[in-house]
Amino acid sequence: MNEQGARILIVDDEPQIRKLLKVTLHAHQYTIHEAAGGEEGVRQASLIHPDLIVLDLGLPDMSGMEVLRRIREWSSVPVIVLTAKDREEDKILALDSGADDYVTKPFGMGELVARIRVALRHVAKSANEPILKIGELTLDLAQRIVELNGERIKLTPTEYDLLKILASNAGRVVTQRQLLQQVWGSNHSESESHYLRVYIGHLRKKLEEDSTQPKFIVTEPGIGYRFLSRD
Amino acid sequence: MGKSLWTPWWSYASITLLISLMTAILHPFILEVDLVNIALIYLFPVLISSVFWGFRPAIYSAIVAVLAFDFFFVPPELSFTVEDLRYLISFGVYLAVAVLISSLAARLKQQLLYSKQKEAQTASLYALSSQMSALTDIHALLDNVSRHVSQNIGAESVIYLPDDRNKLVLTHRSDDLSDWGKSEAEAVIAILTFEDGEAAGYGSNILRYSQGYYLPLKTEDRIYGVLALNMKELKSGLTAEQYQMLEAIGGLAASAIARVKLAEEAKIAHLSAESERLRTAILDSVSHELRTPLAAIIGSSTSLIESDHLFTSEDRMELLTTIRDGALRMNRLVINLLSMVQLESGMLRLRNNWCDVEDLIGVTLAQVKDFQEHRTLRVHLPENTPMVIGDEVLLEQMLVNIVSNAIKYSPDYSDIDIKVSVDSDNLRISVFDQGIGLSEDEYVRIFEKFYRASATKQVTGTGLGLAICQGIAELHGGSISGRRNEPQGTVMIITLPLKKRHEMYTIPEEKEQDEYE
């Protein structure tokens, strides 16, 4: 799919926000469709088959979560949710229910555009690329080899699994629950969330020059982790 | 008193024995001693019995003494016949003296008894009043009163107090199992007593045949409630002393209730003064903190809209940056206000997750990167820093606030050090800056809402940040404090509790592998 000219559906009840998004995203060469409420959003999504949806979670007629659920029943279109700062739980719930990423209001447009790009690119990418290259880091998924600046990095199986999930979602946030489920195959137990932090710490020690100023794996407090994409 | 009237039989026996003994001892001296003296000696048992046993034994002993004197001493001896009739007058005088002495002695004794009782009552009231003056809780106070009533009167008691709408309700019962006092009839008499301010019920002038006795708890100017006694068990009724005692307890209870009420009212008055002060502070701070950025935003954007052609692209960028910064500042204020409200209302649900301190610091550094300018931020972490339990988002907010302050109040190109230290119970994050130092007492006051140290007045801020930090630290069972940094600047120290070592999880061993397949 071509990133340029992608069709984006904006579902937000605030005309000011819609106007802002419309003008800015249009300037970035996207085609914009608007919906002022949840019902209309679901209908538009089924009618115009957008390439991406920007969804405000705080809608008056139907909760954003409900909109997300209805769309996810038949479509895997990338959805970026807009939330308020103090609704951490909503963010996690939305992400775990199939939203691709989130942006907290008030947001800088640069941030939103970056999230949109990553989400669109992620869809465009074929699922089984054997080699991931992100900046100086190379992951050979077939041979389970990790290289940083051409040098081999030795990882334990758990570290490797974590890195693989994060890197193949480069630029996108991965929630703690998603990581726990995919690496430990379990639901959220306290000991495992403890391990998760320890292993992320280990990974950073092996990959980062300064683990208090990470360049690869950044923490989204309360949500999860994001592997920074290079562009 | 009933006791003194009905002196036991042995007092009469002792009197009889004493007089017989005296007679036996005195009889041999009948010729040497004048009869008048002997008669006077016979007053002695009368005196003793009136002092020790009271009126009746005294009369008894007078009669026995007269008889013994007559029989053994007055001629003809060993006969009740009297030769000289003048002796009959002597007997009369003798009896009269005996009666007088014994009644005087008996009255003395009664007074002694009475003052002893008074003393006991006073002691008991004193105990009650000193106990009550120490009580600030109304229920403990009522409990004390009813315990005293049952100790001194021996009756079950209930207390009615007016509620917020001045409606009398049953507030306390001495016996939780009893239903007495709950019924409509009892409540009606209680209300009557409350309104009239006069005792009512059993034995009083109003409704004297009802089962309960109702006493208003009143001070000179106000009635505070009603003390009611269930008189069912007290068949004999109350004595005058018991009524007095009740009155006294009632008075004490009333003044104690008045004191507690006054204390409560004073507290409320203090609180409302405090909230008034806070409201003013909020208004001042918020209006200033909102208006300044708003003025910048409105000013810059209107110039851009109205006179776009006048500006160079550099000017335009300058104005746009002003708009952005103003909006960001307003955003910070809104976040701070919301956090404060959430913290104060107790609405905040603390998530208890494992938090990696290194990670928290990393996130914080990323957050402040844009405005640290040329200050150097250094992190000193011990090997294997343990994790803390807490809410990552809140802990991050706290740390960002502290580090932002360090940046805000210290000169550009200075150093800021973030040091983490660990002992067996706590983890400490200390942030050292080389900026404005404060005086000793200001390091306590900076955690108050809307307080801003005088040295920091020229830097914008709401005075909320540190209050929020303290709230967050306390929510995590930790604390936060500040002190001067030597030679200059400030150190802020966050202390967070650590889980015991055995509660931490050990990571399963894993080998690094060269070949995975």
Throw out a few tags for this protein:
heterodimer, A: 231 residues, alpha/beta, Rossmann fold, Arc Repressor Mutant, subunit A, five-stranded parallel β-sheet, four-stranded antiparallel β-sheet, B: 517 residues, alpha+beta, Beta-Lactamase, Heat Shock Protein 90, 3 domains, five-stranded antiparallel β-sheet, five-stranded mixed β-sheet, 14 helices, 54% helix, 14% strand, disordered N terminus
Overall pLDDT level of chain A: 88
Q: Most extensive chain contact?
A: A-B, 33 and 35 residues
**CATH superfamily descriptor of the largest domain in chain A:** Response regulator
Strand percentage of chain A lies at: 15-25%
Task: Identify the CATH class of the largest domain in chain A.
Answer: Alpha Beta
Give the strand tally of chain A: 12
Question: How many DSSP E strands of chain B?
Answer: 12
Helical residue percent of chain B? 40-55%
Give me the CATH fold name of the largest domain in chain A: Rossmann fold
The main pleated sheet of chain A reads as: 5 strands, parallel
Give me the CATH architecture of the largest domain in chain B, please: 2-Layer Sandwich
Q: Note the overall shape of chain B.
A: elongated
Instruction: Count up the helices of chain A.
Output: 8
Q: What is the total domain count of chain A? A: 2
- CATH fold title of the largest domain in chain B: Heat Shock Protein 90
